[in-house]
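Before going further, it is useful to explain how the protein records used in this thesis are read. An example of such a record is reproduced below.

***
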Amino acid sequence: MQIDYALKQKILEANITVHRQEAKYYERLHPEVYSKKEQKRITDRLQEVDRVLGGGKKCALDVGAGTGNLTGKLLQMGYHVTAMDISAEMGNILKKKYAAYLGSKLTVINSPVEELDFKPGTFDLITSYSVMHHLPDYIGVLQTLIGLLKKGGVIYIDHEASPVYWTNKQSMLAEIIKGLYLHTSPVINSLYFQMTGLRVPMIDYTLSDYWFKKDHALNHKNIEAVFKQAHFSYYKRSDYFQTTTWIPNPLFLPYRLVCKPEMSYWIAKK
């Protein structure tokens, strides 16, 4: 999974550009993140993470915080949160949304995750939602984040393609439904955007979503190996189905019945 320096820089620059372009549209562009069903699932997972972590430990780092999807929930759960993102535009929106917490329970940092400068063992909890597939060296970043985690701390990585996302090892019926479902979602969303009057800019995700590609997909075996090598006391990947449209997709039920879950999350305790 090694890539050269020039490509790394292009991926970082692409992410800055993409998130600048979509910052003010982000929460309306992504039903797979902001649908009611997904928001409830995230809340449930954070509560699960909180139970795994145990009481009295409330210092969190939200990596790739964006406009504050997880940050806001963590603040409401009583955490002191350091929210970092490579996008200044995203960070500014986050600051406005949670201005009441700034200076007391919230710190916002505009920085690539590769340049974070904290002492080892600073955080009780580190969260990363829909971030790893954007990073040039996500394994190197994961190793760095583990060093920032206290003994007994928890890392939560969510919204990454599962190992079966790109495989062809499902039944023929599953492959047909999978193809129809994934290609129907943009059409349904496009109709929704037209109905609501949202003018969505053309955004090129080719490099920004580098590890969300069939020919170089995010590798969960490598992620597991990092936890194993760091002697984590607990680590587990779970898979789930995501909702990808703002209005109901008629193929969602047969998709769930016939296909395998396409997304994954990790909860790991140091």
Q: What stands out?
A: The chain has ten helices and nine strands. The CA atoms of residues 100 and 177 lie 46 Å apart. The first helix runs from residue 5 to 22.
